[in-house]
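User: Please predict structures.

Assistant: First:
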Amino acid sequence: MHRNPDGSWDKSKLPSRHVTEGPSRAPHRSYYYAMGLGSREIAQPFVGVASCWNEAAPCNTTLMRQAHAASEGVRAAGGTPREFCTITVTDGIAMGHEGMRSSLVSRDVIADSVELTMRGHSYDALVGVAGCDKSLPGMMMAMLRLNIPSVFLYGGSILPGVWRGREVTVQDIFEGVGKHSAGQMTDEELEDLERHACPGDGACGGQYTANTMACVSEAIGLALPLSSALPASYLDRDAYARASGEAVVALIERNLRPRDICTREAFENAAIVVAATGGSTNGGLHLPAMAHEAGIRFTLRDVAEIMRRTPYLCDLMPGGRYPAKKMGEAGGVPMLLRTLLDAGLLHGDVMTVTGRTLRENLAGVVWRDDQDVIRPASDPLSTTGGVVGLWGSLAPDGGIVKVAGLSHTKHRGPARVFDGEQACFDAVEKRQYKEGDVLVIRYEGPRGGPGMREMLSTTAAIYGQGISDKVALVTDGRFSGATRGLCIGHVGPEAQAGGPIALVRDGDIIAIDADAGTIDLEVDPIELENRKRHWQPHETAYGAGALWKYAQIVGPAHLGAVTHPGGEAERHVYADI
């Protein structure tokens, strides 16, 4: 669309014309000459190459290398790359303390910062490279919001560690803390484990949130097929980065944009893949947020209904046997998509960043009988997906639980109520709870936290103490993709909004049935109305700054905990491409 007959670029309808064309833009062009560009490069489309590189955690440490490779691909295809970085808050480091309040907030800051950089410099297209839980959805949200030609690239998983002859991940360390507090692991054993569980670069090595959203990126059509398969430390990943750079230039020529790709059907495909892989419950938060950016209403209930009817096929940690690396070796996301497509479970005619449909991308994928990581759809691990939604008197707006590998799916018991995670974690460490209890952690929602913290430290401690099949945990906060046990998160309305979870008292009976999709507070409605009359919102510790601002504008979890109107209101962005 944007090529002249002689092969040069026609920038008359590209955003970068605002900073490169005509005499009035001489000052702007002088900056590009200062950075070593020539007139040919200035006349080409400008492609933002955004990465979440930092040294906060191994999830992000290879992203700069891969961004450089993506830039090489942009240049080879006739574009001009412009690299920049945005933030990442890494959950593994933020976990278990006040830092976790910044995690979900960072997703929207990433989307906002990429948007502002792209708008401010009038870039024509985007390659986004991300490697951690919130940076993947944040980067894809920016693509959908801007609606300019875009390709997403996952930075890759970490390799599993080896400890005492078995493969381990960071999940084993969190659960080791619980074993240590129960006297089942010595100081020396825990220290030895922590030195071996994470052997190098890459995101946490099970089907936790990062790898779940990496699978989503391929399923939804924003990433090249198989691009999420290789671990971060493998230099062969750079070939996918270069190909992503080449692909985005082709998208400019085709004028193929994220909202052409990420239709309602594509989001349904993504939810199917989250369920089939036994992925993170955070998929139920990020998919509605991404859809919101595209002007599509796709709520937790929509996600949960799709997951309910999707078979669970991938034998991946934390509920299964294998680390994420094995998924790639088994054929990766394309192998999974092929068996789902052949079973009639996917929309095959959706477009992807290759310029071909999903069905066309999968035409050459042949099922492999020499692997047992991905099961055929005809022989699932279970007939229902690894993540399910629950509704009832305790959660009118819903909640979500990861049931992959879980046998304890029903529970009825007395509530043990904690206002905030730390109080619950302290009680768990001291074994100040009983078998049969339902531990309730509230005022940890998007507004009440603020920030909707993950509770992996608490759930892993319970699991490590060997009692996770005898208690349940309910929260208006979130759980890590590595969480195991009957742990219901995203309960809404949240406590800070006066939801039923705010009215629960110690000893109240809570009944949970993950098979039926119900969660109920067995308290007389008249009594709850009386409690509601005396209820007051919780006062947080944040009266200023980013967390305070977030609490003022964030929406409910079942709609994605988004911070702006989105969708149709943003359709004017770059409409003249």
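Second:
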Amino acid sequence: MASSGRDGRTTVYDVGVIGGGFAGPVLASVLARAGVRTLLLEERAQPRFAVGESMVPYASALVRLVARRYDVPELESLATLKAVRRDVSPRCGVLRNMGFVFHRAGLRQHPGEVYQVVNPSVVPDPPHLFRQDVDAHLLGVAQRYGADVRTGSGARVDGVRVDPDSGARLRTRGGAEFSVRYVVDAGGRHAPLARELGLREEPAGLRHHSRCLFTHMTGVTPYDETPAGRASVGASPWHEGTLHHVFDGGWLWVIPFGNQRRGSADAVCSVGLTLDPRRHPVTDRSPQEEFAAVLGLLPDVARQFADARALRPWTATGRLQYSARRIVGDRYCLAAHAAGFVDPLYSRGLAHSLQTVDSLAWRLIAAARDGDWSTERFRPVEDLQRGLLAAHDDLACASFAAFGDWDLFNAVVRVWTLGTVLGALAVENACGAYLRGGPDHALRDDAVLRAPEHGRRPGSPLPDNDHYNSLGPLARTLCAEVTAGTRTPGDAAGRIFAALGAADYVPPALGLADPADRFFHNTPARIVRAARWVRTEAPEDTAALLTGAMRGLLGERLHRPRRPRRPHP
């Protein structure tokens, strides 16, 4: 099979990547940097509107790891606010915390019913990504490294034919045909590969149910400047992070871009409303009318949006959840949001994409060199993505069930906190161990980065820790019993807190098992107590993980990041 390249000569690409929305261009950049002949097809012209903007510390650690593992320094600019504003776009905002404010319909917000996770001071501020700028930038990075990037309606993939022995043939709406030895579809819900091969599960093989409407807005009052926000002061200003307003049957996000103390480019906010369609079924109201109706139930949220207006038409979805009966097959892989999606809750999307790219990229690079494109080589990428989707499904189900009771939500959100903190620490530990192999990229030991793939629970920050991996299913089961009326919310909350208290791998000083400790904030006193616990009481593997992660994080403060070089095609 052959196709015509831009120079008119016959070209067979090693890898064809479908989709230009973050995962696709990150993967294409990594592959092209390694000398893999890479084609990227994106049907929408750039720049384009997209959501998925919160680069939480877990995702920030992952993007640093991918940048350094594959020697693509441009990616590292996405890890911190300072670098992304300098190298990519001044329209990105700061993410200093993840905040959760609990509301009861028709009532004023109770100041004691809030929860906040504040980034540790040793972590440079990660950003809220202004995706239309970031995605366009990433496509440019892939192109500069030598990927053949095609965008616009003519690059829409309308046909895929897979041959297990030789690769795949991609046909575009513009009439072009491309031959690739392997195809990766990162095209999201409407992935052409899933459509052409009939890979979508109907109904979705996920328990969670939600739908969403979202846009960008201006004129959104910082929550800290509203009466309720002033009454429930966080450990960090609410407007300097990703804010979640949670209520019975749904949640609302506010992701500000013009929120850093100095140098703001604008005052745009990403705003989205996610609802359980079984509690809030679709009506004939417009998205704006539906948004206004929900604000009418939440008086303190309504005050935040009193002067707000949408900058673009609202996007409204049906059920958000979708999945695939098969993710990896002969000569193909569905990647990131093409494999499935659960819910935007807890901002897992960027981390999921980066974990998938990290696991997939080295296999593709090896296959391009040795010619082994066997399905078995790529099977762990399917296991990883199924593990990520299942864990998020458990947590989303539990959280939506808990949105109706503060005590229960206060317990469930700690399960997420533990996962995101452990995830970031595990990545920092692995990245630090990898970099300690020396300055020569070719001489570093890649095995330390592959080790987690051999654990019993792929995708878990502690893949071989049975206690940790039981927490998500436990929370989901208990919350389902609350919904069914067979267990009280108080009893379910107590059992979740008890399970957290039994985690001998968590420093007690962090307060995760204390319902009254509503601000996960690593103050100097907490750090000292946690360090003492690591030295004297922590299990050996936990002590090694935390010590290695802190060595990496403290090293970051002394590390002077390289300015991205301008690669030659």
